[in-house]
Amino acid sequence: MTLRVTQSMMHSQLLRNVNNNLSRMERNQNVLSTGRKILKPSDDPVGITYALHYRSELSINEQYQKNIDTAKAYVDHTDTILGQVNDLIQRANELTTQGVNGTNPQSALDAIAQELGQIYEQAVTLGNDRLNGKYIFNGQKTDIQPYTTAGAPTESSDDQKIVYQFSAGVTVPINVTGNEVFGIGSGPNQEPDNLFSVLKDLQNDFLNGDQTAARTDMDRLTSRFNKFLDVRAEVGARANRIDLLDSRLQDLNQNLTALDSKVEDADIAETITNLQADQNVYQASLSVGAKIIQPSLLDYLR
User: Fold this and answer.
1) Shortest CA distance to 64 belongs to which of 169, 176, 175?
2) Averaged over 68-84, what is the pLDDT?
3) Distance CA 290, CA 301 (A)
């Protein structure tokens, strides 16, 4: 039995085909305007799962990158200040070596004592150094000044570390404490080679012309300098590790971005070609439709 094709059936089929062509054109236009081939989860249920995973990883890495940038600034600044402390200790050592050679008159010793006094005050200034308004040598108590000019030889800093996380399970302390740099100045663990105490004692030794005491204090200065070099080496090692973590994180971000691009990004050349083909088909369907629906009741009544 042959199925009778009515005019209404032809019109319905025509409209359905025209709408399908229009829908394909709309999708390709949306893909071109967004640059993404997954516009809704139903476009690629498996792909959207991977895409969300990659986006989450990139978002977490963005925070890790901020931590690394902050840590690098902190460690670099600390290293700069330690370099200045290093210069002060070396200058104090030069002056002490000059002062204990037994050939200097008291006036020369007074001049040495005066410069040692300036070195002491500058050391206190560096001990109270701040970055972004926070004291860098006072552990986690970054809002409290650790040293005073009058009491620095008997003062100590907070010993707590500021720890940053740079990836899952990877944490690195970014600060060194004043106790590590200048020595513990108070309490049961007070260190005899506290830098502030040694500088003050050396100043008094030369003011009093006591070169024997100055030689003893010179040994204390050497002891502090050796400990200070260990701290500088530790800061340098941390800076290198943070640089390595930064490089690794950038490589990881590049890989994740490439993977996400493969899943989500549209092939622009392919999409333009498809859109042009869809436009041609759409125009053809409209042309054919105009011919199909052209006969009307008036045409039959002529």
Assistant:
1) 169
2) 97
3) 20
Q: What is the pLDDT of residue 12?
A: 85
pLDDT of residue 6: 78
Spatial distance between the Cα atoms of 152 and 129, rounded to a whole number of angstroms: 14
Q: Output phi, psi for 155, to 5 deg.
A: -115, 150
What pTM was computed for the model? 0.81
* Angle in degrees, 0-180, between the axes of helices 195-207 and 45-99, rounded to the nearest 10: 20
**225-245 as b/e, with b when 16 or more CB fall inside 10 Å?**
beebeebbeebeebbeebeeb
**Rounded-to-integer distance, Cα 57 and Cα 54, Å:** 5
Check residue 298 and give its pLDDT.
52
Assigned token pair, 240: 């290198």
Q: Which of 69, 115, 75 is nearest to 95 (CA)?
A: 115
CA 273 and chain centroid, separation: 43
Contact 160, 135 (CB under 8 A): no
Is residue 89 within 8 A of residue 228, CB to CB? The reply is yes
Q: Name the strand (E) or helix (H) holding 247.
A: helix 211-264
For residues 61 and 191, give the distance between their C-alpha atoms in angstroms, rounded to a whole number.
42
The three-state secondary structure class of 53 is helix
The answer to whether 257 touches 58, Cβ cutoff 8 Å, is: yes
* Helices vs strands, H then E, count in the chain: 8, 4
